[in-house]
Amino acid sequence: MATYSHSKLSTFDQCKYKYKLRYVDFVRSELKTIEGFMGTIVHQTLEKLYRELKAGIVNSKDNLLKYYLWMWQKNWTPGIVVVKKEYNAEHYKTLGLNYLMGYYDKYSPFNQLTTVAIETNDRLGLTNNDKYYVMIDRLAVDEDKNYYVIDYKTNANPANQTTLDKDTQLAMYSLWVKDKFLDAKSIKLVWNFLATDEEKVSVRTDEELVEMKNSIENKINEIGNCIEYPATTSKLCDYCEYKSICPEWKRNEIEEVKPKYTRQKLLNAYLK
Ligand code: SF4
User: Fold this and answer.
1) Ligand 1 mean position, distance from CA 226 (Å)
2) How confident is the model at residue 271 (pLDDT cuts 50, 70, 90)?
3) Mapped to the 3 state alphabet, what secondary structure does the chain carry?
4) 214-255 confidence digits (pLDDT tens)
5) In-domain check, residue 120
6) Where a domain ends, among 110, 135, 164?
7) Domain contains 229
8) 42 in a domain, yes or no?
């Protein structure tokens, strides 16, 4: 019996070698990217907002932004990598601030829905006794018992509706909501794209959920039977924590650098 998360399954799809390093060999890497770091601090700030709201405390915008900046400073380490060389850490810090300001202005005083849970930490049982990890950013409900599985996104470009309608992460979470909250009249999947201030919603039928759960269980079987873990390079390698120990990435990098190196060698020989 094992627990699978959305991130574990998508790592398998992205690159099996990365999956092996992270989930089979348990190779630890401290490497963090600035996008991931900023996303974490923004999530923690929104978590504070809604946790305190549940206790009847409404943070002022100023207070919330101060908390964000304090968390940034407290958790910052020099090893955090800025992948896009045209930007620096300050750029990302300001982006996060802007996201929070936009969110605050749009939803204040935050009374549209009642928060039921924040950053859940539970598991959904699967047919073969494996588990699916459920971590919902925020679960909320309205007066008519419609539930909302809410996810905050800090990536620059929002996904389109077709992609969201096929997304499995929040849909799997909705199965957990269905099990736990028997009063749920409907369950909506909601993505808050903070960069563009957009809220996108997807709703699934029972048939779609059954089909999706089957496909997730099939994927888990495929992972269980996997014996070869080839590396798959893509533009996502730039954000991979195992770049420095990945032979495939090194080989690709050498292939890219080789022509320049040869030209430089020729030039040196000529100058000499
Ligand atoms: S650098 Fe790329 S190819 Fe290598 S493990 Fe990471 S994702 Fe896979």
Assistant:
1) 18
2) low
3) CCEECHHHHHHHHHCHHHHHHHHHCCCCCCCCEHHHHHHHHHHHHHHHHHHHHHCCCCCCHHHHHHHHHHHHHHHCCCCCECCCCCCCHHHHHHHHHHHHHHHHHHHCCCCCCEEEEECCCEEEECCCCCEEEECCCEEEECCCCEEEEEEEECCCCCCCHHHHHHCCHHHHHHHHHHHHCCCCCEEEEEEEECCCCEEEEECCCHHHHHHHHHHHHHHHHHHHCCCCCCCCCCHHHHHCCCHHHCHHHHHHHHHHHHHHHHHHHHHHHHHC
4) 999 999 999 999 999 999 999 999 899 999 899 998 887 766
5) no
6) 110
7) no
8) yes
Q: What spacing in Å lies between the alpha carbon of 95 and ligand 1's midpoint?
A: 28
CA of 231 to the centre of ligand 1 (A): 6
Number of separate domains in the chain: 2
16 found inside a domain: no
Domain termination residue (choose one: 110, 136, 165): 110
Reported as a pLDDT band with limits 50, 70 and 90, residue 205 is: very high
Q: Hey, whose CA ends up nearest to atom 3 of ligand 1?
A: 233
Whole domain around residue 242: which residue ranges? Answer: 235-271
Is 37 a pocket residue for ligand 1 (Cβ < 6 Å)? no
Q: Closest ligand 1 atom to the C-alpha of 252?
A: 3
Look up the pTM and report it.
Answer: 0.90
From the CA of 240, give the closest atom in ligand 1.
Answer: 6
Residue nearest to ligand 1 atom 2, measured at CA: 237
Using a 6 Å cutoff on CB, does residue 18 contact ligand 1? Answer: yes
Q: Ligand 1 centre and the CA of 232: distance in Å? A: 6
State the distance from the centre of ligand 1 to the C-alpha of 237, rounded, in angstroms: 5
